[in-house]
Design a protein that fits this description.
With 114 residues, this protein is mainly β. 0% of the residues lie in helices and 48% in strands. It has no helices and eleven strands. A hairpin with a 4-residue loop joins β7 and β8. The N and C termini lie far apart (40 Å).
Length: 114
Amino acid sequence: QVQLVESGGGLVQSGGSLRLSCAASGFTFRSYAMGWYRQAPGKARELVARIERSGSTPSYADSVKGRFRISRDDAKNTVHLPMDSLKPGDTAVYYCNAPAFGAWGQGTQVAVSS
């Protein structure tokens, strides 16, 4: 059974930083790509960042390039999303995703105040 558990959300002022983490279980983590999505109130869920199974060539939404950086620790079955220079527009629920399984975590709230 695939399980994804996010942590690290919270309330931060504009310009601040947070680090999201996602602990994965139930599959061979190192063999699969992982992603982070977010959903703001009244908006569709959108892809924030994706990392391939090798950890190479991560991809980002244009809105977060240069501020967010996805990484993975295959020894700990964990994917991280450090987020810097946060803006009020980054406020959303952030979800961890294992695309090969269509699996989602429960989400973690990020709120950025101006």
